Every structure is written in structure tokens, then in C-alpha cells.
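dumping this here so i dont lose it
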């Protein structure tokens, strides 16, 4: 029951410019109804799990999935739904919040770099080092007041962003050269849909816990965030570490596209299960006979 999702529609590798004003947040659904969506997602999960098992056994590649989005776009739910059913031993998930004092005493890439996935695993970043060219760019006072950089290095904030884009590209190229594939998702929600989801959090008691005043405050910087995302994606989209801009107004559609991208990325890896030589096969036969007689 496969579905035809052309992931190249959502892909940015630096060969074309990302224009956030021309990028839809809603597209026609890839599923007919809830049952169809459920069946499609289960198929994707099963295929991803099979490939992750091979990745673990092959022990040469790792996959880092980065999720960035405005508040209420559905990062948590997407990670949960897409990765449900995947062997938890092969997946590590990190959610990066406001930096701690210890993290601020290191370089801006330190806290995320130490969390990169080991060979054979899928690592998932719910927010990431990209916050340093998104939130910090929208609120430049963070750079000058809290990030403890030498004064001469922050005289020109625009130069800081250029340098950080370069550092990020170099980090992701380094990761690629070491067998870590970096795939980045921007869940592209509309401002109106975000408003509806915030209201839902306020109006539905079982969602009240999700509401934070800071989210509404950040909403007032919407245009600046859109500019920051556009600049960031255009500056850091490469063939080795592509961005996928996913329409996020429909959560089910979004999750199907994300699952398809992950599956496609894993299918590109040159993986196989380790071969068993003849001597080892003979040993297996001995153990098989022992167990059958037990």
C-alpha cells in the first residue's frame, strides 16, 4: 500500500533557493482517511525498523535527524509517531532547551556535538545547534549579554551569523566524512495554524500543560523568525546535509512525508548484514545440534 511521495519537492541541497513566502504550509493529503494514514505509517515504520536493524549490525553509518520548527508545529508528536515501533536500542533522542551555565562556558556547538549518534544508531535532535542562528539571531542580546564571547568577536553580529553558518557547514561535512548522515527538517507551520493550536492548548484542559506564555511572546517575532529560517536554510543546505521543508498544517501529512524522507535516506546507505564465513557456519551447526538435543 505504498504512496507516491516525491521527497525532492521538499528538498533543499543548496542548488535552489528557499523562499519561505513561496513555500506552502498545506498541500493535498497523501492519505484518504485515518485508516489509510495508519496503514501507511505502519508500513513506513516497519521498513525503517528493518533498515535500522541492518544499520546497527553493519556498524559503519549513523543517521542524525534534526527537527526545527516554530512552537506548536508538531516536533514532539512527529518524532513520537514516526519512530514508534523502531527498536529503542537503536535510537537516541535529545531535546535541547535553554543552555545551562556549563554549556554557555563552551563553544556554541559543544553541547550538541557530544550528543552525535554513534555508529549503527539513529540520533534525533529536537531543536539543535541551529537555535544559535535562529533564536539568537532574532534576539541578538543573547549573543552579547549571555554567551560570554570576547567583546571583539561580537562587534558585528552579521559577521557572527556568517561565521556560524560556515562552522555548521564544516561540522556537517566532517560528520558526513565520518559516516554520519545529517538530515534536517523544518516543519513549516502557518501563523494562523499556530494560533489555532495555541487556542486549543488553552481551551482543552488535557492540553493546558502544553501552553507557555513564552510561546505567545515569541509569536510576536514571527516575521523575524521567518527571515532567520530562510537565511539559515539557504546558508546551510548542502548535498551532504540537506534540509527538508515539510508543510506542517496537517500533522498526518507532515508525518508521512518525514517518514518517507527518513526511509529514502536510509535506503541510500550502502549497508548489509555482516557475512558469516564457513568456519563460523560450522560452529553454528554445532550449537544448533546442541540446542536441538537439549
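and the seq i came up w/
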Amino acid at each position: 500500500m505504498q504512496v507516491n511521495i516525491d521527497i525532492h519537492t521538499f528538498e533543499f541541497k543548496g542548488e535552489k533557493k528557499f523562499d519561505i513566502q513561496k513555500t506552502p504550509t498545506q498541500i493535498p493529503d497523501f492519505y484518504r482517511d485515518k485508516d489509510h494514514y495508519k496503514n501507511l505509517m505502519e508500513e513506513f515504520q516497519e521498513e525503517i525498523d528493518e533498515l535500522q536493524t541492518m544499520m546497527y549490525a553493519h556498524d559503519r553509518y549513523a543517521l542524525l535527524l534534526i527537527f526545527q520548527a516554530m512552537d506548536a508545529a508538531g516536533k514532539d508528536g512527529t518524532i513520537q509517531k514516526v519512530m514508534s515501533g523502531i527498536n529503542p536500542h537503536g535510537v537516541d533522542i535529545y531535546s535541547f532547551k535553554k543552555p545551562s551555565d556549563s554549556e554557555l562556558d563552551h563553544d556554541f556547538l559543544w553541547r550538541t556535538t557530544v550528543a552525535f549518534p554513534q555508529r549503527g544508531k539513529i540520533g534525533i535532535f529536537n531543536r539543535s545547534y541551529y537555535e544559535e542562528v535562529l533564536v539568537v539571531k532574532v534576539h541578538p542580546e543573547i549573543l552579547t549579554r549571555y554567551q560570554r564571547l570576547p567583546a571583539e568577536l561580537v562587534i558585528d553580529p552579521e559577521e557572527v551569523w556568517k561565521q556560524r553558518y560556515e562552522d555548521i557547514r564544516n561540522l556537517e561535512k566532517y560528520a558526513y566524512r565520518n559516516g554520519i548522515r545529517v538530515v534536517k527538517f523544518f516543519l513549516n507551520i502557518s501563523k494562523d495554524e499556530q494560533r489555532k493550536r495555541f487556542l486549543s492548548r488553552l481551551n482543552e484542559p488535557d492540553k493546558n500543560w502544553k501552553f507557555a506564555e513564552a510561546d505567545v511572546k515569541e509569536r510576536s517575532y514571527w516575521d523575524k523568525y521567518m527571515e532567520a529560517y530562510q537565511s539559515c536554510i539557504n546558508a546551510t543546505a548542502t548535498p551532504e546535509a540537506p534540509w527538508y521543508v515539510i508543510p506542517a498544517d496537517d500533522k498526518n501529512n507532515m508525518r508521512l512525508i518525514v517518514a518517507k524522507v527518513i526511509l529514502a535516506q536510509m535506503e541510500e546507505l550502502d549497508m548489509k548484514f555482516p557475512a558469516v564465513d564457513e568456519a563460523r557456519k560450522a560452529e553454528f551447526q554445532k550449537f544448533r545440534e546442541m540446542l536441538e538435543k537439549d
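The first helix runs from residue 34 to 58.
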